[in-house]
Amino acid sequence: MQACASNGTEYSASIRDGYTKMREAGAAARELLVAAAAARLAVPAGELTAQNGTITHKSSGKSVTYGEVATEAAKLEVPAEIPLKEKSAWTILGKPQERIDMFAKATGAPIFGIDVSFPDMLYGTVKMSPRFWAKPVKSDLSKAEKMPGVVKIVPIETSYASGFGVIANNTWAAFQAAEAIEVEWGVAEYPADSAGVTKALHDAIGAEGSALRNDGDVDAAFADAPRDKMIEAEYAVPFLAHACMEPMNATARLKDGVLDIWSPNQFPTLTRYLCAGVAGVERDKTNVHTTFMGGGFGRRGEMDFSLYATILAKETGGRPIKVTWTREEDIRHDVYRPAALGRFRARIGDDGLPVAVDMRIAAPSIVASMLRRVFPSVSPMGPDKLIVEGAYDQPYTIPNYRVSAHKADAATMHVGAWRSVGNSYNGFFHESFLDEVAAAGKLDPVEMRLKLMARFPAALAVVDKVAKMAKWGETLPAGKARGFAFTLSFGSWVGEIVQIADTPSGIRIEKVWIAADLGTAIDPRIVEAQLFSAAIYGMSAAMGQEITFAGGMVEQSNFHDFDAMCINQCPAFEVAILENYHKMGGAGEVGTPPAVAALANAVSALTGKRVRSLPISKQAAFA
């Protein structure tokens, strides 16, 4: 959704952040309109009803519209106490509403950032260092500067990256000129290849970490554990790009001391703050026009594309410039979901349940990387809980339960928020390992989780619901299998079951069942769509996506080597939305973590070989 709060849209918090504020604002407006109508009609406010834009005095038949008394209402004092409707009286909230944005989106209307157009507009693109934070050692712009349509080539130097911006009369000319720039880049300050990244993760996981969950006495529980009652496993996931359908872009105009920037961004306030500084104008002279986004997933919470457009706008003599990245520039200059490594061990009790679990998780710090890009003068302090979210905060009761975060500083490059952040890989780690624990304890994976969740009614209801939806436990035909996973993330409790089938052309995902408790679902139809979308996003990554490095540079460049699920691969979905929990949870990201683990667990059940690293395509083919 578009930003409804001043700070931005992140962490599945837009509705949670705006819910009470917007209800109170609406209720206050209603009270003021009624008060103004009472004065206009000379009747007691308590005798008026406000509905469908009209305020009516039933006994006299008098009425006024909201618009007729709006000016008078605006002059009144906002009441200190604002009564809110009980949920039972809601007429809009909690019910599916028609999407007013869908016609424009379905018909290709010019509503996205990349569609912005002005009569006197220039066009641009960027060529940034393919090694993060490395600078140009030497360059030759002469060939690019002489190309038809090129207006100017300017250096770009920011806390994000160094490189060049091309200003041209059309986008194609800008793309061609950027390609023609000859430049030698500096070396990377992080491991140059994927093998080096893996080594950095192993080094980090072997070092001391920060335990964000430490129940009982884990060391003592393992000290005398019989070998036949212990299991150990190591899991790994790669870096991932966001791969938004709309490549990064922004349009900027700096004219008469005023900066206007049209940007498909998730943080308009921060965009204004940073772009104003780059342009050298006051914030009250900076206007951010937030357009629709052709995919965000956390990527458009970054500032680079808006900053680069602002820098180029300083060189255009007051003309607007639309700066569009090539797909290759987009894929190779992302802020990636971190690669991560998990090392796990469990002690199984005589009843098959785990009596001790020790989880060590290593990853580059998103917080440290983000601060370096956006606020480089601020140093990160303390543990980064994002490394272990989705593992340390799950609703399972195990007597001895430790989850520790291990910062892989040596592998820190451009990493950032990717749909569901740390939950995206910890959901896979945690729930896949619990499946291994269930197998070792000779327990059904759903039944084991229900026992471990006994103290959490919301979790129990979700797991019970999704199991009943899928008829979990029924005998499946040969060549079919199911996997289950649960993740509590962003305040929402989500269980998913994935059914797959072995076909001559590979594994086909047939159906996905999802049960989710968000506490309160403001629009169930949108929640359902978000759960579909998030699950597909997660399964796409699990099936075949990875970002690898060679020579300090990203190897992937476009959808031919970083693709998502195609429509013919998408399964049928069945969704149940529960509203048992007393607090509201998020919706936009919560379907991703369990989808990854449920798919991996299904493949393990089908093939008999445990999936411990992603993408799954390295050990199984998909139809």
Descriptive account of the structure:
- 30% of the residues lie in helices and 24% in strands.
- It is an alpha+beta fold and 623 residues long.
- A 7-stranded mixed sheet has the order 6-7-4-14-11-12-13, with helices on both faces. It has a 5-stranded mixed sheet with strand order 9-17-16-15-10, sandwiched between helices.
- The model is unreliable at 1-6 (pLDDT under 50).
- It contains 16 helices and 23 strands.
What is the rounded Rg? 27 Å
Q: What would you call the quaternary organization?
A: single chain
Order of strands in the sheet with most strands: 6-7-4-14-11-12-13
How would you state the average pLDDT, rounded?
Answer: 96
How helical, in percent, are the residues?
Answer: 25-40%
Largest sheet composition: 7 strands, mixed
Unreliable runs: 1-6
How many β-strands, per DSSP? Answer: 23
Share of residues in strands: 15-25%
The number of helical elements comes to 16
User: What is the distance, rounded to the nearest whole angstrom, between the alpha carbons of the first and last residues?
Assistant: 33 Å
Helix and strand composition category = alpha+beta
**Overall spatial form:** globular
Compact overview of the structure:
30% of the residues lie in helices and 24% in strands. It has a 7-stranded mixed β-sheet, sandwiched between helices. The protein has a 5-stranded mixed β-sheet with strand order 9-17-16-15-10, with helices on both faces. A hairpin with a 2-residue loop joins strand 1 and strand 2.
